[in-house]
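Intended use. Records like the one below are meant for learning the mapping from a protein sequence to its folded structure. Do not use them to infer anything beyond what is encoded.
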Amino acid sequence: MTLRNDFLWGGATAANQCEGGYLEGNKGLSTVDVIPAGKDRVAVMRGKMKMLECDEEHYYPSHEAIDFYHHYKEDIALFAEMGFKCFRLSIAWTRIFPNGDDIIPNEEGLKFYDAVFDECLKYGIEPLVTITHFDVPMNLVNTIGSWRSRKMIDHYERLCETLFTRYKDKVKYWLTFNEINMILHLSFGSSGLVFEEGENEESIKYQAAHHQLVASAKATEIAHKIDPKFKIGCMLAGANTYPYTCAPEDVWKAMNRDREHYFFIDVQARGEYPNYAKKMFEKMNINLKIEDGDEELLKNNTVDFISFSYYGSRLTSADPEVNTKQTAANLFPTLRNPYLKVSEWGWQIDSLGLRITLNSLYDRYQKPLFIVENGLGAVDIPNENVNIEDDYRIEYLREHIKAMKDAVTEDGVELMGYTPWGCIDLVSSSTGEMKKRYGFIYVDKDDEGRGILKRSKKKSFYWYKKVIETNGEDLE
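Structure written out for the chain above:
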């Protein structure tokens, strides 16, 4: 048994990390446009430091990013040369509705994505479109408090209806929200939430999450009405949490840590809030405002497939003293696992963890899965021939693809495709850096914005081309 013949090999990006052209084509200001690089970035993304406009003291990497806005033809041609069957990208909400609450969409923005999709289809590449990837119009943050407000559902619904209608002959695969569980960790960066002192932050986060879950169900309903052939997916920042020891308390803690994230997909894939989440809300004194019709909407409009990102596993302990020794993992706090190597940014590398995560998700939901992010952020240094010999990236991806294949061929997991993160170098979401590179394609730009944006192929470019050509059989 091998991977299916129509397996969707490709790569993934996000508008806010690659497009640039941040006010071109009548685009409005988005949350990501006011998130700086540097020491204040994480505080702003967490909603702890208020930054609602740009200033002179900070550098904002999204403003130019890698300028995909002007380089998309060149970039998609390179993806086609690698043999991509699929390209995951996101829509910049403020390209379509500059203020978020506009009634008429911005035709210039719509035409831009028409051109991008046409370029993909020219090469036989299926677009996989994330409707919103850490992207909220700043006008909606300033006027209604973003996803705190139920009014956001109507604005999101208008965006979806516009996209599904306009691109119904060009796009089949859609994701409603990128890493929807990140609202708990990057409340402003993912969802435009800013907190005032003394507020019950957890209550605000979960109420906003309810609005997003209702909006996701609404999007699924609209999509299937416009074209029943549309495939709508949800998206989780995925990874299993391991217990630090076999002490039952550690196992219980790890189980509950996973449930904090599964709960979002439980609603999107099963159509209702699980009992453990209801009990959690009780203990936290959170009273969700659930309006008439919400539960029925959620129940009747579950997603067609489940997508997720995977960079490494997590580790936790019930012992507060042990839990003080935390490291980084996609901005999730986790203990350092002594059995795993780490990346230059301290992210733990665990290829078997991908197989474990695939099995956990498939056992839980029995819906097709799609790995839409996986990759290694590393400093790539050109050699004397100005080539990048990124064998470390090839090794990382090889081991993860092996684990992915084992999940399919040995365990029977139903998997639609694999789109490694940052198939072309782009701005790191977590740090705002360019030097934290993921791509098969090098982009000449540094952390201060210097560089001529020249694209060049890394060693991994040719390796991944061979992987796709052989449908994952030749990984050497």
